[in-house]
Structures are given as C-alpha cells and as structure tokens.
Amino acid sequence: MVWRGALAVVTVTTADLLALNSDLTDNAVLQHYVDTAETVLDEDLWGTKYGSGWLTLAMHMAVCKQTPSAVGGPVTARAIDKISESYAAAGFTDAELGQTTWGRDHMMLRDSLATQVAYGTGTTQPDWGLDDERVH
C-alpha cells in the first residue's frame, strides 16, 4: 500500500485476483481487467470503498472471460437433437453483474454508495445516485 499524505493509495494487481481465484490463468487478460476496472470507477465518489469496488469489478470481468462456464446469459436458442444451447451476449448491466458472485458484491457496494451519498454527511451532492455516470 502506498500513502499519499494521510490517505492510502489503493492498488489492485493481478496477484490479488489470482489469490482469490486460482482458476484464473491468463495474466495479460487479468491485467486488462484490472486496468479497465480502475478507469471506470471514480475514486472520489467511491471513497473508502474504492479498493473493494475496483477488485470486485475486475474479478467479475475476469471470471466472465476466463471461466465462461460459470456465467450464462439468457437462453436464445435450444435444440433437442444433439443437444445444443446458446446464450445471449450480455452488456454491462445489473443483470450481467448478477451472474457472478463478484458482480453481485460489486452491485452491493455500488448500491451502498447511493445510500451513502443521499443520506450521508451533506458534504456531497444530494442528487448523486445510481444514474450518476460516476457510479458504475
């Protein structure tokens, strides 16, 4: 952990993801999702939950990519003879986040931000909520 003044600077690494799920193996893919998750979260808005939000979002994306059997979208086609099934490609929505434990944890953290902002100390904008583009 690195310190900037009195505040700790949070860093999520591929080693953090590997420590949580040994089935993840492609370091280049893991690094991509660590970097992507960092860019879509607003550190000021997430505050003390920033590291957890970053980690859960990166884990969700990595699990979706590297262990697709653990994730399934809505069935869009099914065949009876020679059994076949197809899944819809999901966008980055609550339904998609809900497909992994990490995505559900991320939603729980994100949803707590709206409550924190709406009912917090009054030091943040009262109209911030889930529709605010800084909350992902």
In brief:
The chain has 136 residues and is mainly α.
Structure description:
By secondary structure, the protein is mainly alpha-helical. The protein has one domain (2-119). Helices cover 48% and strands 11% of the residues. The protein contains 6 helices and 4 strands; from the N terminus they run ββααααββαα. It has helices at 14-20, 27-40, 43-46, 50-66, 94-97, 101-119; strands at 2-4, 7-9, 75-79, 84-87. The strands form 2 sheets. The chain has a two-stranded antiparallel sheet with strand order 1-2. A two-stranded antiparallel sheet has the order 3-4. Helix 2 (27-40) packs across helix 4 (50-66) and helix 4 (50-66) packs antiparallel against helix 6. It starts with a strand and ends in a 17-residue tail after the last helix. 21% of the residues are buried. Mean pLDDT is 73; it is low at 1-6 and 119-128.
Main β-sheet, spatial strand arrangement: 1-2
**Treating each run of at least 4 consecutive H or I residues as one helix, how many helices?**
6
Provide the domain count: 1
Shape: globular
Query: How many whole angstroms does the radius of gyration measure?
Result: 17 Å
Secondary-structure content class: mainly alpha
Order of helices and strands: EEHHHHEEHH
In terms of DSSP E residues, the strand content is 5-15%
Distance between the termini: 24 Å
- Determine the fraction of residues in helical runs and give it as a percent range: 40-55%
Biggest β-sheet, characterized? 2 strands, antiparallel
Instruction: Give the averaged pLDDT, no decimals.
Output: 73
Number of strands: 4
Low-confidence stretches: 1-6, 119-128
